[in-house]
Amino acid sequence: MVQISEVKDSNTRDSRTAAHTHIKGLGLDERGVAKAVEAGFVGQTEAREGAGVIVDLIKAKKMSGKAILLAGGPATGKTAIALAISQELGPKVPFVPIVGSELYSVEVKKTEALMENFRRSIGLRIKETKEVYEGEVTELTPEESENPLGGYGKTISHVIVGLKSAKGTKTLRLDPTIYESIQKEKVTIGDVMYIEANTGSVKRVGRSDAYATEFDLEAEEYVPLPKGDVHKKKEIVQDLTLHDLDVANARPQGGQDVLSMMGQLLKPKKTEITEKLRQEVNKVVQKYIDQGVAELVPGVLFIDEVHMLDIEIFTYLNRALEATIAPIVVLASNRGMTTVKGTEDIRAPHGIPPDLIDRLLIIRTLPYSVDEIRVIIEKRAKVEGLPVSPEALDKLAQEGSKTSLRYALQLLSPSGILSKTMGHASIQVSDIDEAESLFLDAKRSTKVLESTTGYL
Ligand SMILES: Nc1ncnc2c1ncn2[C@@H]1O[C@H](COP(=O)(O)OP(=O)(O)OP(=O)(O)O)[C@@H](O)[C@H]1O
Ligand SMILES: [Mg+2]
Predict the structure, then answer these.
(1) 423 lies in which domain range?
(2) What is the predicted pLDDT for the residue at 1?
(3) Which segments cross the bilayer (predicted)?
(4) What percent of the chain has pLDDT over 70?
(5) Average of pLDDT values for 58-64?
């Protein structure tokens, strides 16, 4: 029997690199037209608009099982656009970013690793009507008693929780295990939470807005006092991914005795996730969907540096895209004609075999003009908190168009440090010269190597 309880939250998404912190979205207007400078993005308008269309298609659920390729030179914003897509989709749609080379590991078969990421990028929204106790916490008192097993120390025998809703209040006397979950959710007095009557699982909804005037440094979500009675039926929406279900069902639901607890410690993945198990999970999922309890949310699997994949993975990918349940796959590559990895002589654009290329929608990213580079550097400097003089900005922009945007961006932080040690109020041209003399760009570095055959 497939169970859906005991699944951890899969919505922790942190961005892979801090290099893109200035990117906040695609920066399109309501007609989907890219504004020249918006949401941290500068230029690259066609690619952004193309990405916007794809976001719309994904939101309308018309896109599953399709693949998109972001193609363009180094540092033209491919990775940035992919991240912007994820920001546009919001936190409820799974977005799984990986780099091609991540699929190779000694422990896990590469196609297996790909399949796992596939399943991570397919969400399932489950709606259930449950009996809950919901309200603003007015009291939270653990009751202690002597440890029944003797010895010193006390144990918590009960916890008294007071809940207030718009229609009334209730005081509950709960099991200590529930107290643990309350602590895990970091519930304090003045928060709104609910407790499921059957399972005892606890969920913090937010801070009651009666407390909204308090000084609060951290961003806090304020919620109104729950309507109706404290004890009621409530529709609960849970977002998880197919991979969460696979894991929950592969792992033995361990008991509380010492032996099985040790077993869990040593072998966290006792049962492997097999194709058979996945099929079984799929069957149950399909049943839930038919019953209207669950809804499929195809998300995005982003594979950066796709030329790192080999022919075997490509073949597998092709087939996986054809499955009834598939995410949208976004690929990115900065390569031109390259030999497909794992073959001797198949040369193909971006190192992608022709049969996959055929089914791709391709978005092209173009090199930036000096002016665009200047604006991007300016934005980036602001994010990093580095003041730059206008002449120095011009210089960096020139440098960027001569070498690459990334090199110019990378010069920013060392120049900042050098300018500080020189006591400059902002980064000057001389600081950049200094940084450039310390750090080579790729072209100069190659030149040095060419002229110094002998060592290295
Ligand atoms: N149009 C843009 N507006 C603002 N910032 C940008 C833009 N394009 C790129 N950047 C920034 O420039 C840097 C390089 O871009 P990014 O990493 O997206 O390039 P890429 O196309 O993925 O390159 P590569 O092929 O080398 O992986 C990043 O810090 C990115 O945030
Ligand atoms: Mg990239």
Answers:
(1) 370-451
(2) 40
(3) none
(4) 87
(5) 77
Q: Which of 15, 17, 21, 23 to mutate to test the pocket of ligand 1 (most atoms within 8 A of CB)?
A: 23
Say yes or no: 84 and 154 in one domain: no
Are 184 and 260 contained in the same domain?
Answer: yes
Residue whose entry in the numeric block shows the structure tokens 């290295």 = 456
Per-residue pLDDT tens over the stretch 101-139 = 888 887 788 888 898 999 999 988 888 888 889 999 998
* Ligand 1 near 97 CB (within 6 A): no
CA quadruple 299, 303, 306, 312: dihedral, nearest 10: -70
Which helix (H) or strand (E) is 132 found in, with range? strand 122-146
Give the model's confidence band at 216: pLDDT under 50 very low, under 70 low, under 90 confident, else very high.
low
Q: From the CA of 23, give the closest atom in ligand 1.
A: 31
Q: Report the alpha-carbon distance of residue 446 to residue 392 in Å, rounded.
A: 26
Number of separate domains in the chain = 3
63 and 78, same domain (yes or no): yes
Is 2 a member of any domain? no
Residue 330 banded pLDDT, cuts 50, 70, 90: very high
Does residue 369 surpass a pLDDT of 70? yes
Burial class for 344, CB neighbours closer than 10 Å (0-12, 13-18, 19+): exposed
Domain boundary among 234, 267, 295: 295
